[in-house]
Every structure is written in C-alpha cells, then in structure tokens.
Write a structure and sequence with these properties.
The structure holds 3 protein chains of 3 kinds. By secondary structure, chain B is an alpha+beta fold. Helix content of chain B is about 35%, strand content about 10%. Chain C is α+β, with helices and mostly antiparallel strands. In chain C, a hairpin with a 5-residue loop joins β7 and β8 (about 215-220). The longest helix of chain C is centred in the C-terminal third of the chain and has 25 residues, at about 560-580. The relative contact order of chain C is 0.16. Classes of the chains: A mainly alpha, B alpha+beta, C alpha+beta. At the B-C interface, α1, α2 and α3 of B face α3, α5, α6, β12 and α11 of C.
C-alpha cells in the first residue's frame, strides 16, 4: 500500500501517472487521425468507418471510458502538481529568472493544456453529442457531411487549426517529457526517442490541420461527394422500406 | 593595468533576516574600478570592504573553498544561478565575463525549502535531510570485505561518478521553474543505485529519499531541464529518468521485491 | 618535561595489534551513557562521528559550514594511498611506512606511521563498501596510479575529486547516524573554547554563527578534527573559513602545539592577480612534467606579452640552477627558486603591491614536440580550470604559476592514542601533528584523516572512557557557565575595539600573510625570523587597537568571525617563528637557508634535532616553553633525503 501511495502522492509518482495517461491520449490522437484520413478516400469509406465504430459498442465504450479516465487523471494530477509547484517558490524572484534552454512548447504547457481541454469539449459537442448544426444540419450518421459542413465555416476551421497547432506544441513537449517521466531513457536511444516524439507530434498536428484546409480548398467535400454520401443514406432508407414491406 | 578594471551598476538583494521584506540596494558607487581578474566573490569582498569603510553592514553570502567544489557559494546573477557562464560556480565566475558599465542584479536562491537567512545566504539543510533519509549504504566501519571483492564494471563506476560529482550547491533548485530538487535527488540516488554496493537498499532508499524531498517542500519535475543548464558540474537530467524508473519499480513491488 | 607518547614497543608489525588488545573496552550497554563531542566534519571528523555513533556513543558533531559535507577535505584532488599491492609491483605495509618516514625527512614517529600504513588498506575497503566510486579497470577491479615520487602505484583515485568522494562517503555514514539519532549535528557553529576542569576536557563553548548565541556543551571526551592552519599565510589553497581557532584555544588551555613551523608550500598554484585576491588554487604538479619554467632575464620585460620575449632573453632558471633535475626538482626547491625570482623583481603577471608574483610555465615546446592533442589529453582539465580563472589559454600564452601554502604538518601534540596533553582532548587529522613529520607525501593527507577517524579513535577513545569514567559536569555547571562568560567577554572586547577601529580585518590578515611568506615561508633564516618576531607583535598591537568590526556579537557577523580567527593567527604566527628559529636545521619543508647541501637539498641535524618540538603556552605575554619528544628510528635508518 505504502508503495502504491508513492505513485499517487509523490511528485514523481504523480508525474508518472500524468505521463502514462498522456501516452494513452497521444496514442488515441494518432489513431483518431489515421481514421480521419479516410476522409481523403471518399465519403463511403469514411462513413463506413464511422458506422463500424458505432456498430461495435464494446470498442466504442471501452475507448470512451479509457479516454475519460485518462483525461480526468491527466488533468487532476497536473493540477495537483501545478498547485504544489506554485507553493515550492512562495516568494518568486524579484528580478525575473531567465530560462536557459526551456522550449516554447514546455513553457506554454500550462496554457496549451486548459485550452486543449476547452477545445475537446467543443469538438465533442460539435461531432458527437449533442451535435451542433455548424454550416448545415447535423446528421448523426452522415459524419462525412458534418465534417465538410462544419469546416466550410471559416471560424470553425480557424478554431480547429489553432487548437491543433496547440496540440502539436503540447505533444512536442509532452511526448519527450512522458518518456522521461516514465524513465524510458538510455543513451543509445535518446536521440531516436526525441526524433520519434517530434515526428509523431508533427504528424498529428499537421494531419489534423490539413483536414479543414482540404475542406476549405475544396480538396474534399465536393458537391458530388456530398451527394454520394447523402444518397447512400437515402438508398438505404428506400431499401430498408422495401425489404420491410416485403417481409410484412 | 588600469584598463583591466570595470565599473558595474550593481544591485544586491539585502534582507536582514527571514522576517524582513528585503529589497535591492544600488551599490553602483561601491562597484567601481573592479579588476576583471577578480572572481565574482572577490568583487563582493571589495564591495564589502568599501561598505565597511562607510560604516555599512557587509553583504552576507555563503562561500568557503572558492575553487568550485565545496558547493557553499551561490547566488542568482542576472536571473541565472551562478551567473551566465556554464559549468561554473559563483566563486569561479570571473569579472572579465562582464562588460564595463554592465547592470548586475544579485539575488539569493529562491525556494520555499531554502529560506533566506540573510541577504544572499540561504538555509539548504533540506538537502542534508534528503541524504539522511537514505543517501548511504548501511555498512558499519570495519565490516567491509576486501575492496576488490566487489568488482564494478568500469562503465558503471564511471556513470556513478558522473552522478556523484554533484556538489550540493542547490543551483538546480534555484533554476527550476518549480523549485524542484529532482536533479540533486536523482544524482544522489543514481550514484548509489547504480553500484552493486547500493543494490540491497535500492528501492527502500528511492522511496525514502523521494518522500523526504517532497516533505521538504520542493516542487515536482516538469522536464524543462533548466537544472541541467544551471548545474556547475553538468549533471544530466538522464539521472531524473533513471530515478523515475526506480520509483515506478519501487511503487509496484513490496518490501521483499515481489510485484504487488 | 620529556614528553611520553606512550608508544608500544617491540616488533613494529605487532605494536598496534597488541596495543588494541591491551586497550580497555566499554561494555556495549554502557556506551550509550557516554557523550562525545566531535568538532569539524572533514574526513577525520565525519569518520569519527559516524563510527563512534555506530558503536553506540552519544555524539554531538559541530561544523562552521552550512553542511558537514562542505569541509575542505572535499577539495583534495589527487588520491589516497593504501598499501594494497593490487598492482603486484612490490608494495607492502612496510614500504608505505618506509616511504612516509623518509618522505617526512625523519621527523615522524615510527609507531604512528606504521599504524597508518597498516590501516590504510582497511580505509579502501571501507570506502568501497560505502559506495565511493573509485576509478576502475575494465575488469571491474580498482585502478591505481603512482603519485608524489613513489616508485609503486598505490594511489586510489576518483577522477580529480578523490577528496570529495571520500568525504561524501564519510558524510553519508554520518548522515545515517544522524537519522538513527546517534549523532546530533550542529551546523554553522564555531568552537571558541574548550572547557577544561581538573586537567580534563569536559566540553566546548561554541558560537552559533547565525544567532550569535554562545553556548556550552559538555561531554565525556572531546575530539578536535578542525584541520590545519595554512590560512595564517592569508593566501593559501585552504578554504576561506579554515582557521586555527579551535586548536589555538585548546593550546591556550594547556594542549602543547607541536612543530608549528612544518608547513608545506605547493609550487604550482595559480598566482595572485591583485590585492583583492582571496585565495589561491592548486593545480596538479604533473604539469611540470611537460612545462618549462622561466622568467625574463631583464625586469624590463616582465610586464610584456611573454610571446614577444625572444628565446635568448628568457631565463629557464630551474634548468639553469639544477641541470640534472631541471623543471622536476622537488616541490620545496621549485617553490623557493620561483619566490627568489619574484623577489628579485623578475616576476611576471599583474602587479600585486610592488611586485609581480608569478613565473611562466611554458608548454610551447611540449606542444611543438608532441602536438596539441596529446598535451590536451594529459592536461585538458587543468588547462580549462586555468583558463576559467585567468582568462588565458595555456596553449597560446604560457601559464603563470606561484607557490602557495597548502598543508600544515604541525599541529596539536598527541600521544599514540591521539590524545593531547589535556586528558580527554583528542586531536585527529590535519589538526594533530602526528604522522607526516617535516613533510607530507602526496595522497597521504586523506589517508591520515580517515585512519584517525575510522580506525584509531574508536579504540583509543573507548580505553580513555573505560579508564576515566563519566564526566559529572553539566552544561549548567559553574565551570561551563564561567567558560561561556569568558568567551562572551572576549567577544565583547573585540566588538568594543571594533566599533571604533578603522582597519578591515582582511587588511590585517593580508599583512600578516605577506609577512609570514617573507619571514617564515618556503625559505627561512635567523635574521628574517627575528624580524618576524619583532614585526608580528606590532601588527598584533595594531589589530587590538584598530581592527574594525561592525554590528554586534548577538547576530550573524562575518567581520567578527574573521577578526576572532585573525586574533588567533596573530598569536600562532609568532609561535611558528619561534619554532622555526629554534629548529636550527633544515628538514623536509622547513628550510633554513643556513643549512643547505650543495645540491640545494635540506641539511638535517639529527644529532640535535631528531625530536618533536612541542610548545607550551605560558601566558599571553610570556615566552612559550619548548618541550621535546625524542624520536627513535629503529626500522628506517637515518639517511639524507635525495631524489637523485
């Protein structure tokens, strides 16, 4: 018991929890982006992917619960550590201390964190529940149309682009930092570790930013594509009605 | 050698005791014609002699060996612990590093766990407390086996020495945005946890010293690595990663070393 | 009074073992009833406090620094000797003993030195078990190097930080005992007096350097581990706080002070650059293996850029004066020659007062011969240190070096049990006079400090306590209270003078230092010593009339601390001159210019001076009284030191 308390109460233990949950969330955003890239394949593929997830409740709810727990722990422990850190220098420097090597990303973690949290709430509200009618009527199953309609609105795209820039910064420091916090360190792989962390952060950030840009520039979401997406649901409805009738 | 002197616009933190509010005092008039060959502490000596001549109380600062090894000196100079020159303690910082007319602010190391005693002098006994919690190998005098009965691979011995080079000055705490002593703590831990002699007490030591660090009121590490940049002995933050690993293992194993 | 060291007799190899058997023991259950005070937490003090704590005694330890880990043992670079013979190169306990007696120029006690050599092997075992990261070979076993003229490799080292690592080892053992409640540690406390009653040391009086509080502490025995007095020279390689006060106050209470004139000067230090200079930094002597020492032939060139001085205008004086050894002449000879050049106005570097204090150590030829890469491999870290301090790159501009006071072999007289002439007052490490004779070999200081603390005092102190029993005196006894009063009176007197005085304590210290380097430094003669004996009282008088001290005694007061230490140095300085004058011979580091061999080596006078001179304090204005402990050499035959 004493031992486990080390993990939840000590400065190092709490940071380890923040790191492990951070890694989970990092993993999720990579997967999330990989799925979203299906937007470039076409409306059918993307909507099928969305339907596939929704059609698999254990996967869906397992992921949701894991993410929720991760976010809660990530935020709670970060806040506890931040409070503690603020009291560790109750009286600050009267002539400001100068950072020597701290990166911009590291210095802004305290800002990028809360902003990303707000963004996540917005993002969930936009696409999941309740589903906001941004740039068009929200359609619970035609996810492709929701994305395209949303990103056609310039300020929605602006929010996503800015938020994903922040996400990139957060992951840039967070990725390396998490590895350090869980003690994944060896002189042999340190350079590689840093490159991987940076590479993945750039991949997630750039990939996510590319989507609204692609929509704004009409690279995806042409009238034809939107019509195909919509048509799929209409044929489906017709077929369903027909088969239903036959069965009756 | 008259061109070897500089005038400074010097501001030194004066604080009569822990209860005093404290303030920067402008000592520019006492900091003229300072030899560029003098060390930073010798510059303060000169200022103190001049202050005394005016009947002013000398600036209190800690110092002893003045060759960069005892770890007793230290001040934040223009926002950087031990000044801007890397791998250098305050006593080894020389005035040739400063331009004529430079504005210099000198402030004590600031951390809740390092209360100010007077002026630039702070109480770092919390470092001793951390070591007392477990920074040793429990061996009685006279109980040791022959020294060569414990072979230590050269790489391990060298790595342990890298960590053991810490002089306990506290610059890592002063430089840390969170006033964390993680670098000091991890260097102490790595030194003993790397060596075969340190293995029997490895996880007990890790838990106990970390608890002492946290109880002393130091902050936690957020991996900014300012400590490494400020460390006069170049102690690497790799030791912090190593400590984190040991903490994880210590958290997941019981006293007998079995996984919980 | 003929001093009796109570050394065991008989076969030297068995003396310590037999003595240990004969020493009385304290019953384990009784140990916790005995209290011991340890002053100073360097190698000797930390080792003693930790070990006595482990044994079960109640220990109180004191240091003036903010942490016991900072004592100046930490600055020792080179290494520690031990007769392990791991190199299979012919080393043995006897050889280490032999080298040390000979290196000390036959002015040390054979019994003590043999014991030192014997326990040296235990020290390495102990340090390794504590986790001291000594240098290793690829096979994982301990590495050695040769050091200080020894013909065998017996020096153990941890990079250039051996003292630091050994001290951290002792400090970790001490920390363990503090955590266990066996040792109470008092940082930022300076010892100002020893409480003596009925001929026995009963405790000490300290000043809390932060609050100024004067307090008495009583115990059943007191161990002084307070280091050497090299700072009497003002500029030395010692830490700023190193002082003689604890030893000196004990001396004034009845402890004899032995061989105060034995002080070691190190030739390769970074020279002073100005009046503000506060200390000197030592560089490894190995630099002389490749560097050539020179000064300009004409004083008019001494301020010039050395690179502009043509070859024929340079005087490579060591090569000229000692063609056989050249730049590698022994420490004391090199030091004296360098000082003579500077005194003659041929010194180089910045003016300090009316002289330039420095000679060149030039690597240009070595770099031309071996290439910069090879030279940097050997001396890279030293070059870096030099450049950090002076701003000059030794690859471009010749280094400047100057000798500096480094170690003091003299100290309080102790018997074989390390007890001074005050019962129950033990003296360990550099503070005592015991094991090095007239000169200390490289890598032997760390060895002696740890030997005394880990392996000698635990036995001999037990014997004393078992024989004498408990000290009934408490901190509230009349004796303790009057000791406190006396210290308070002394401080009040200083403060009283200091409020009106106008000379900064450092200024007087600086003058004392210059005087001591001139009159009682690396070369001494009767005339100079007599001048010193006339000048020191004048300076002392000036101190007691005009020293400036701001503030009061009841607060943090660095000027008061300094003044108190200088007051004691001013008295010690006089005793050093007395000792140097009376010892009318040259031996080891004590070089009387009247007694010199043709090759420049010291000429001993074994007939009249094969003894320890221990001085008794007879009153503040009375002449000190000299006592003699005869030295017998049964195992190492008296011979002239020669490094040819």
């Amino acid at each position: 018991m004493q031992a486990v308390l080390t993990l939840t109460r000590s400065t190092v233990g709490q940071k380890v929890v923040v790191a492990v949950t951070g890694v989970i969330l990092f993993g999720f955003v990579i997967g999330h982006l990989a799925g979203n890239l299906l937007l470039f394949v076409g409306p059918e593929a993307f909507n099928a992917y969305a339907a596939g997830i929704k059609g698999n409740p254990p996967l869906l709810w397992g992921t949701r619960v894991t993410l929720l727990v991760s976010v809660v722990l990530h935020v709670t422990f970060t806040m506890q550590l931040a409070r503690r850190n603020a009291t560790a220098r109750a009286r600050g420097y009267q002539k400001p201390r100068k950072d020597q090597i701290t990166t911009y990303a590291a210095r802004t973690m305290i800002l990028s964190g809360p902003l990303l949290f707000a963004y996540i709430l917005f993002h969930i509200a936009h696409f999941t529940a309740p589903g906001l009618d941004l740039g068009g009527t929200f359609h619970p199953e035609n996810v492709y149309a929701n994305v395209v309609n949303g990103f056609r609105t310039w300020w929605v795209s602006a929010i996503y682009i800015f938020a994903n820039f922040l996400l990139g910064l957060h992951l840039f420091h967070g990725g390396w930092s998490a590895a350090q916090s869980i003690g994944a360190q060896s002189p042999k792989y340190d350079a590689l570790k840093k490159q991987v962390a940076v590479g993945l952060a750039v991949f997630v950030s750039a990939g996510n930013i590319f989507i609204p840009i692609a929509v704004l520039t009409q690279l995806i979401g042409s009238a034809d594509q939107l019509a195909r997406a919509q048509a799929a649901f209409e044929t489906e409805a017709v077929t369903e009605a027909a088969t239903g009738a036959e069965e009756e | 050698m008259s061109d070897d002197t500089i005038d400074l616009r010097l501001h030194v933190w004066r604080q009569r005791g822990p209860g005093d509010e404290g303030r920067f005092a402008d000592y520019s008039k006492y900091a003229k014609r300072i030899s560029t060959h003098a060390s930073f502490l010798e510059m303060l000596d000169v200022v103190n002699e001049r202050l005394a001549a005016d009947g002013e109380r000398p600036i209190a600062f800690d110092h002893d060996c003045r060759e960069g090894i005892c770890g007793m000196c230290g001040a934040v100079i223009n926002g950087v612990p031990h000044g801007h020159r890397t791998l250098t303690t305050t006593c080894q910082l020389h005035m040739r590093e400063f331009q004529n007319g430079a504005e210099v602010f000198v402030e004590p190391f600031r951390a809740t766990a390092f209360p100010v005693i007077e002026d630039l002098m702070v109480d770092r006994s919390s470092f001793d407390t951390i070591v007392q919690a477990g920074g040793y190998v429990s061996v009685r005098t006279g109980a040791a086996p022959d020294a060569n009965e414990i072979p230590v691979p050269k790489q391990i011995a060298d790595r342990a020495m890298d960590a053991a080079a810490c002089i306990g000055c506290g610059a890592c705490v002063a430089a840390c945005p969170n006033a964390s002593a993680s670098l000091f703590l991890s260097a102490k831990l790595a030194h003993l946890n790397l060596l075969p002699q340190g293995q029997p007490e490895r996880y007990r030591r890790t838990r106990a010293m970390l608890a002492a660090h946290d109880d002393a009121g130091f902050g936690g590490c957020t991996n900014h690595r300012e400590c490494e940049a400020a460390c006069p002995k170049g102690i690497s933050t790799d030791f912090i990663a190593r400590m984190n690993r040991d903490v994880i293992v210590a958290s997941l194993t019981d006293k007998d070393g079995n996984l919980i | 009074m003929e001093l009796d060291a109570r050394c065991p007799t008989g076969d030297i190899e068995k003396r310590w073992d037999r003595h240990r058997f004969e020493l009385k023991l304290v019953n384990p259950a009784n140990k916790r009833k005995f209290e011991v005070i340890v002053v100073g937490t360097g190698l000797a003090g930390a080792a003693a406090a930790a070990t006595l704590g482990e044994l079960g005694y109640k220990v109180k330890a004191f240091c003036y620094q903010d942490s016991p880990r900072r004592a100046h043992s930490i600055a020792a670079q080179g290494g520690i000797n031990a007769a392990k013979n791991y190199q299979n190169d012919g080393d043995s306990v006897f050889r280490l003993f032999y080298d040390t007696v000979k290196g000390g120029d036959f002015r040390a006690r054979e019994s003590n030195v043999y014991r030192l050599a014997q326990v040296s092997v235990n020290i390495i075992d102990q340090a390794v078990a504590q986790g001291v990261p000594f240098a290793r070979e690829y096979g994982g076993l301990l590495d050695n190097r040769s050091f200080g003229g020894a013909q065998v490799s017996r020096t153990f080292y941890a990079r250039g930080q051996t003292g630091q690592q050994l001290l951290l080892g002792a400090y970790s053992a001490l920390s363990r005992m503090i955590a266990a409640g066996k040792v109470d540690m008092y940082n930022r406390h300076e010892m100002l007096d020893v409480i003596v009653d009925d001929g026995r040391a009963r405790g000490i009086v300290t000043r809390d350097l932060v609050s100024g509080k004067i307090e008495a502490w009583t115990a059943d025995a007191v161990c002084l581990c307070t280091g050497g007095y090299g700072n009497v020279f003002f500029l030395s390689t010692n830490a700023m706080g190193c002082n003689v006060t604890a030893s000196w106050r004990a001396h004034k209470r009845g402890a004899l002070f032995a061989n105060p004139c034995y002080t070691q000067i190190h030739p390769t230090c970074i020279p002073p650059a100005g009046e503000y200079q506060s200390k000197l930094t030592l560089m490894s002597e190995s630099l002389r293996n490749d560097g050539r020492v020179w000064v300009p032939k004409s004083a008019s060139d001494s301020g010039k850029d050395p690179r502009s001085v043509p070859e024929k205008e340079r005087d490579y004086f060591l090569e000229r004066m000692y063609p056989a050894f050249g730049n590698l002449v022994p420490r004391d000879i090199a030091s004296r020659a360098a000082k003579r050049m500077c005194d003659d106005g041929l010194g180089v570097g910045p003016m300090v007062g009316d002289k330039r204090l420095g000679v060149y150590l030039d690597f240009a030829d070595a770099i031309k011969r071996d290439g910069k890469k090879i030279i940097l491999e050997k001396y890279g870290n030293l070059f870096e240190m030099y450049q950090r301090i002076t701003g000059d790159d030794p690859c471009e501009v010749p280094m400047r070096i100057y000798p500096a006071s480094h170690y003091t072999m003299g100290g309080l007289w102790v018997d074989y049990d390390l007890m001074s002439t005050i019962d129950g007052l033990f003296v360990l490490g550099e503070a005592n006079f015991s094991d090095h004779g007239a000169n200390r070999l490289g890598a032997s200081a760390l060895m002696q400090g740890l030997a005394d603390g880990y392996f000698v005092i635990p036995y001999t102190l037990g014997h004393y306590l078992a024989t004498k029993g408990k000290n009934p005196l408490g901190a509230d006894s009349t004796v303790a209270k009057s000791a406190v009063k006396e210290v308070e009176k002394g401080i009040a007197k200083l403060i009283d003078i200091g409020q009106k005085g106008s000379t900064h304590p450092d200024e007087i210290h600086r003058q004392l230092g210059t005087l001591m380097y001139d009159k009682c430094g690396m070369g001494r003669n009767a005339k100079g010593l007599k001048e010193g004996l006339a000048l020191i009282p004048e300076l002392r008088e000036r101190f007691w009339k005009d020293v400036q001290i701001l503030g009061s005694g009841g607060e943090l007061n660095t000027m008061l601390e300094k003044a108190g230490r200088i007051a004691d140095f001013l008295e010690l300085a006089e005793l050093m001159c007395h000792d140097a004058l009376t010892r009318d011979e040259s031996c080891g580091a004590h070089f009387r210019e009247e007694h010199v061999q043709e090759d420049g080596e010291a000429r001993r006078d074994d007939e009249n001076f094969a003894h320890v001179a221990a001085w008794e304090h007879t009153g503040d204005h009375a002449a000190p009284k000299r006592h003699v402990e005869k030295l017998d050499f049964e195992y190492v035959k008296l011979s002239q030191r020669s490094y040819k």
